[in-house]
Every structure is written in structure tokens, then in C-alpha cells.
Amino acid sequence: MVSSCKSIKSRKESEVMEQLEKQILDISQNVLELTVQAVRLVQNKDIDKLNELLVNRDRAINILNALHENLQLYPNKERVNIVNSKLSQIVSRINQYDEIITECLEHQKKLNQTELATTHRGKQGLQGYNLNNLKG
Fold first, then answer.
1. Rounded CA gap, 88 and 107, in Å?
2. Measured on CA atoms in the order 26, 9, 6, 65, is the torsion positive or negative?
3. What distance in Å separates the CA atoms of residue 69 and residue 34, rounded to the nearest whole number?
4. Are 27 and 60 in contact (CB under 8 A)?
5. If 0-12 CB within 10 Å is exposed, 13-18 middle and 19+ buried, where does residue 68 land?
6. Do 34 and 53 contact (CB within 8 A), yes or no?
7. How far apart are CA 13 and CA 26, in angstroms?
8. Are 17 and 74 in contact (CB under 8 A)?
9. Which of 14, 25, 28, 47 could tie 90 with a disulfide, CB 3.0–4.6 Å?
10. Are the CB atoms for 28 and 90 separated by under 8 Å?
11. What gap in Å lies between CA 116 and CA 99, rounded to an integer?
12. How many helices (H) and strands (E) does the chain have?
């Protein structure tokens, strides 16, 4: 009877572990897909949609972190390590795309700063011609 109970408990634990593993890998894959979409948006300079997408990606990452914390509690460390290895590979790819996103945003920031400075200098140059600025 005790052996039967241990077997049932072990089976249930294995099923829960499988579900958790599937959820972690599915969500990490979704985060990767969201990141690829973010690269496209930043390259197309669609910053508003990019911001929305990154908010959703952050939510998915938070869920993934919570699931990953639960995974670490399982006694089958060999299986946990396998999942961690798969997750690490996906996270590595996500980080590569994140670097592209960061580079694109930095480039856009520099362009915006240059444009702003040019506009400001142009405005200052025109102030001498604005008769409304004369003190009477």
C-alpha cells in the first residue's frame, strides 16, 4: 500500500513537472517571438507599437520568472537542469535581439538629439527677425 502511494505521488509529481516544463518553454518561446516582433517595430521606427509590445513582453517575462522559481523547487535536479539548459538557449537568443533593439534605439536617440539641436539653433537664428520680441 505504501509503495502504491509513493508511485501515485511520483506520477503526479512527474505530471506537474511536465506541465511546468511545457509552460516555461512555451512562454519563453512567446517572449522570443515578441522580441523578434520588437526588432521589426524598432527598425520600422514604430515606437508607439514597440512600447505596447514591450509592456506585454515584460508581463510574459514576469510570469516566466515565477514559473522558473517554482521549477527550482523540484527534487529531480537532473530534469530541472535540462529545462534550465533549454531555457538558457532561448534567453541567449532573446539577449541577442535585445542588443539589436538597444542599438536601434540608441541610433534613433542620436538622430532625435541632432534634429532637436538643429531646430533649436534655427529658432535662435530667426529670433532676430521676429519683431514681436522687441522691447518697447
1. 29
2. positive
3. 22
4. yes
5. middle
6. yes
7. 20
8. yes
9. 28
10. yes
11. 25
12. 3, 0
In 3D, which of 73, 93, 75 has the Cα closest to residue 28?
A: 93
| Residue 27 CB partners (closer than 8 Å, separation 6+) | 60, 63, 64, 67
Work out the number of other CB atoms within 10 angstroms of the CB of residue 28: 24
Per-residue pLDDT reduced to its tens digit, 96-131? 999 999 999 999 889 888 888 777 666 666 666 655
Provide the grid cell at 60: 510574459
Q: What is the pLDDT of residues 3-39, one digit of tens each?
A: 666 666 677 888 888 999 999 999 999 999 999 999 9
pLDDT reading at 134 higher than 80: no
- Give the CA radius of gyration of the chain: 26
Q: Taken in order 96, 101, 107, 110, is the CA torsion positive or negative?
A: negative
Please name the residues in contact with 55: beta carbons below 8 A apart, sequence gap of 6 or more.
Answer: none
- Residue that is written with C-alpha cell 532625435 in the block: 112
Looking at residue 64, its pLDDT comes to 96
